[in-house]
Amino acid sequence: MFDHLVISASNYEASKGFFLKVLEPIGLEYISEGPLGIEISTDGKSSLCIRLAEEVPSHLHLAFVAVNRNQVDEFHRLALEAGAQDNGAPGLRPNYSGQYYAAFVIGPDGHNIEMVCHEDEVE
Fold this sequence. Notes:
With 123 residues, this protein is an alpha+beta fold. It contains 2 helices and 9 strands. Strands 5, 6, 7, 8 and 9 form a 5-stranded mixed β-sheet that branches. A 4-stranded mixed β-sheet has the order 1-4-3-2, covered by helices on one side.
């Protein structure tokens, strides 16, 4: 649906480091970095762009797709290691659907960052 999404960060270096680390489990790739900020992608088609803001930006909810539940677990572990606040440990969310496996954290600028897998658990 989206070609790219641009978010603002009050601490550019902290946000850049955070997203580079916590999105490793889904194959994040560095695209470019310049005066406007950094562009990162997992598929080379759609991207997340992080820009420096003069003030703390409004809080967003960002949900990233995982292909398996292990990626959700790894995202949550890496996010907490990177200093994120836990906002929902990895697990099924039956109130969403029977296969909605997700984890939530609060990132450096207060954004609610989610990793979700819609696939069954692989034995």
